[in-house]
Amino acid sequence: MDIKFLDDFLQQSQTSNLKTKGLYPEAIYDLDVKVSFGMGTTTHVPWISALGPGMSTSNGYYPVYLFYKKENVLILAYGISETVDYEEPWSREITDGGEKIKDFLDKPFRYGDSYVFKTYTPEISDDGVKYFSDGSEVSQDDLAGDLKEIVDKYKQCLDITVKDEDSDLSKGLFYMESQLEDFIIQNWDETEFGKKFDLIYEDGELKSQQYRTDIGRIDILAKDKADGAYVVIELKRNQTSDDTVGQVTRYMGWLEEELGASDVKGIIVAGKYDEKLYYAQKMLKNIEVFLYEVNFKLNEYSR
Fold first, then answer.
1. Residue 225 φ then ψ, to 5°
2. Domains of the chain
3. How buried is 301 (Cβ within 10 angstroms: 0-12 exposed, 13-18 middle, 19+ buried)?
4. What mean pLDDT, rounded, does the chain reach?
């Protein structure tokens, strides 16, 4: 495995360049690769994640490189998303007695609940990158071996999950729910939302997705471009229309009470427009409903 992408990643982390498209491999050991240096502005902890089927960086578990720039520490971690809680994402062999990043680093900026697999101290220059661990230089072959080892452990965990017929991943629910939310975020500027609303960033980190409140997490929190009012966006998943309406109104009330927000708006994203949503919307003038469509198309392959 050519590990040169890691050198490129660390060198780019020293710049303000946030672009990743076409610069990094699309897959590592048959796992999808995602890379981020921040959105809008540079983040304190850029990352590279390797994702199995149905996983996303904001909604899953996966091997991940996390570069803590302030501490100059590169961690290859058993990554766990900050937005979804799992009973046993990685095997107990890994989590029982495993060292969390928040125990390895003093008050890490983010990702403290992920588990440490390997740590490196990089020396970054324009000519390349050298890696050290416990005072000894780490070779490219060793780096590649570490990556292969954690990927193999990951695939074993995925295999166990898929064989569990009661798991969300096996049923396909986890995949569809996570992908819809991620699709909206990743294609924000091309959606109707992007024309009217802005996503919220702090210190180069996206805060809009799975926004934390005292009463739960808002799927997506945005701001109206015209007046700066908060906009609560909730996806109607495997729940009733009444539950979804209740969630939206509770979050709207929390924003008014706790943040002193006024004119808070609500949006429900649903696969179909049922009567319950229709009547609820008639009485709740600050709530809109958007319908999503999934288009599946097959094209004949010809050389």
1. -65, -30
2. 4-170 (3.30.920.90), 187-291 (3.40.1350.10)
3. exposed
4. 85
Cβ-Cβ contacts under 8 Å for 59 (sequence gap 6 or more): 81, 83, 84, 174, 177, 178, 181, 182
Tell me which of 47 and 174 has the higher pLDDT. 47
SS3 5: helix
Using one digit for the tens of pLDDT, what is the confidence trace for 267-301?
Answer: 988 766 667 777 887 788 788 887 765 554 545 55
Query: What's at 32, amino acid-wise?
Result: D
Q: How far, in Å, are 27, 77, 258 from residue 143 at the CA level?
A: 17, 13, 47
pLDDT at 285: 79
pLDDT value, residue 84: 67
- pTM over the 0.70 mark: no
- The β-bridge partners of 216 are 213
Phi, psi of 51 (to 5 degrees): -110, 135
